[in-house]
Amino acid sequence: MEEYALLLEIGIPLLLLLLGFVAGRVAEARRYSRIARLEIAFQHMPIFTSKDLMEIGRRVESSQLTVGSVVVSVDHFKRFLAAIRMFFGGELRAYASLIDLGKREALLRMKQSCSDADAVVNVRMQTAALSHGERKTLGSVEVIAYGTAIKYRKDDDGLI
Amino acid sequence: MILTNVESVPGKRIVEHYGLVHGSSIRAKHVGRDIMAGLKNIVGGELKGYTELLAESRRQSIERLVAQAEELGANAIINIRLSTSSVAQGAAEILAYGTAVKVE
């Protein structure tokens, strides 16, 4: 009986790690290809972090706030890697792809929610931790992107 | 109501300022969503339940912002800022604030 208990004690965390590793990899690859496809579809809509419309040099018909957000979490295996990294210090590369995907997803959703706009100006991005995992590891993270969607006047293509 | 996060309403002239308006909402996630999120934490990826929860919460904050501006007689809110913070384990606050103005 005791051997079984020991097996369970080591086996379950190992199984979770393996599950996280395999499922996490597959899911991440799928998300990357999906995002890359959508990014190409929305290439026609430029986004600017500047708010100076003179730089764009077109007359504006209408403008509206647009927001995109996503809540993401890392898999069990990466959290384990990060826990080791946190002991030694240094860059947490295990979390980099999570934040990268989150930022790109939030930007895409921002564009999707104003799909008839010509451009988005003054884009701001921010990250907020919603909860923490065990031992100060990362729980879930919300990434928000917001900006002002601009529609140009169609009758005038000239500069201001 | 026109909402922007730049210091003006592009293409329009501001005729009157009414000052700061703000709206906020605090939401807690329910247990069902928490369990789903717990499972999702093993494989990683998007936590759709939380995304929806926060999007809904943000919509409500902006609605409150707009209601306040309407009361003042404004027809636009400029320079809007959004922020999320977790005030307690399991609850998130969404704050939206901006300047109420009247445009032509």
Question: Secondary structure elements and their pairing?
Answer:
The complex is a heterodimer of chains A (160) and B (104).
Chain A: H1 2-41, E1 60-75, H2 76-88, H3 93-112, E2 119-129, E3 140-152
Antiparallel strand pairs in A: 1-3, 2-3
Helix pairs in contact in A: 1-2, 1-3
Chain B: E1 2-3, E2 14-28, H1 31-43, E3 44-46, H2 48-72, E4 76-88, E5 91-103
Parallel strand pairs in B: 1-4
Antiparallel strand pairs in B: 2-5, 4-5
What is the N-to-C succession of helices and strands of chain B? EEHEHEE
The oligomeric status of these chains comes to heterodimer
In the CATH hierarchy, what is the superfamily of chain B?
Answer: Hypothetical protein apc22750. Chain B
CATH class of chain A: Alpha Beta
* SSE topology string of chain A: HEHHEE
Radius of gyration of chain B: 17 Å
Number of domains of chain A: 1
As laid out across the biggest beta sheet of chain A, the strand order is 1-3-2
CATH architectural category of chain A: 2-Layer Sandwich
User: What is the number of domains of chain B?
Assistant: 1
Protein structure class of chain B: alpha+beta
Explain how this protein is built:
The complex is a heterodimer of chains A (160) and B (104). A three-stranded antiparallel sheet of chain A has the order 1-3-2. In chain A, 31% of the residues are buried. The longest helix of chain A has 40 residues, at 2-41. Chain A has a single domain (2-152), classed as 2-Layer Sandwich (Translation Initiation Factor IF3). In chain A, 46% of the residues lie in helices and 25% in strands. Chain A contains three helices and three strands, in the order αβααββ. Chain A has 160 residues and is α+β, with helices and mostly antiparallel strands. Chain B is α+β, with helices and mostly antiparallel strands and 104 residues long. Chain B has one domain (2-28, 56-103): Translation Initiation Factor IF3, CATH 3.30.110. Helix content of chain B is 37%, strand content 44%. Chain B has two helices and five strands, in the order ββαβαββ. Chain B has helices at 31-43, 48-72, and strands at residues 2-3, 14-28, 44-46, 76-88, 91-103. In chain B, strands 1-4-5-2 form a four-stranded mixed sheet. The interface between A and B is large, with 49 and 35 residues.
